């Protein structure tokens, strides 16, 4: 790597750097953790779930609480980043 050349980091690379830890396909995230990760409100999550174009992962409901598979949330974030790179 030449330090004199500018280095650009793609959105996809930036997302991957955010998630350096290996993903446990069974790990669940609560609504609070999802909203914190995405820096949005629970109302935003509800709107995304109601909008088929957003393709937001469906939650798993346990005792009236919603949980998401972490791998599905990470995949959704990466897919959104790829869409931005393609200009969609």
TrEMBL record:
<dbReference type="Pfam" id="PF05930">
    <property type="entry name" value="Phage_AlpA"/>
</dbReference>
<protein>
    <recommendedName>
        <fullName>Transcriptional regulator, AlpA family</fullName>
    </recommendedName>
</protein>
<dbReference type="InterPro" id="IPR010260">
    <property type="entry name" value="AlpA"/>
</dbReference>
